[in-house]
Amino acid sequence: MESESLTTLGEELLASARSANAGRAARTILGGHTHRLRQTLIALLAGRAMGEHDSPGEATIQVLRGSVRLTSTNHDWSGSEGSLGIIPPERHELEAKEDSLVLLTVVVDL
């Protein structure tokens, strides 16, 4: 069984986000063309956002560190460390209230 330290990877991604113009960094830790399940660890610095984008389909977001706010036309969700949210099936935006790490889990149609 393969193993990955989300803590270590998260620290690396936060360091990358601090030097990135967009204030974010991400790495897919599970997924690819042969997997229906895709998991991506995302680092997002305080005050930065992933602008409005389409829903990836059936998906959740788990806050591993910090706090974030996910907004759409019909939904407004705030999550902090330990929170798990269901991503709405509509365009939405994710904003970090403080330096944050989130784990995005998506089911992909093959």
TrEMBL record:
Segment forming the signal sequence: none
InterPro entries in UniProt: RmlC-like_jellyroll, RmlC_Cupin_sf
Highest taxon listed in the record's lineage: Bacteria
Gene3D superfamilies hit by this protein: Jelly Rolls
PANTHER family for the chain: SLR8022 PROTEIN
Name of the protein described by the UniProt record: LuxR family transcriptional regulator
Species of provenance: Tessaracoccus rhinocerotis
Taxonomic path: Bacteria, Bacillati, Actinomycetota, Actinomycetes, Propionibacteriales
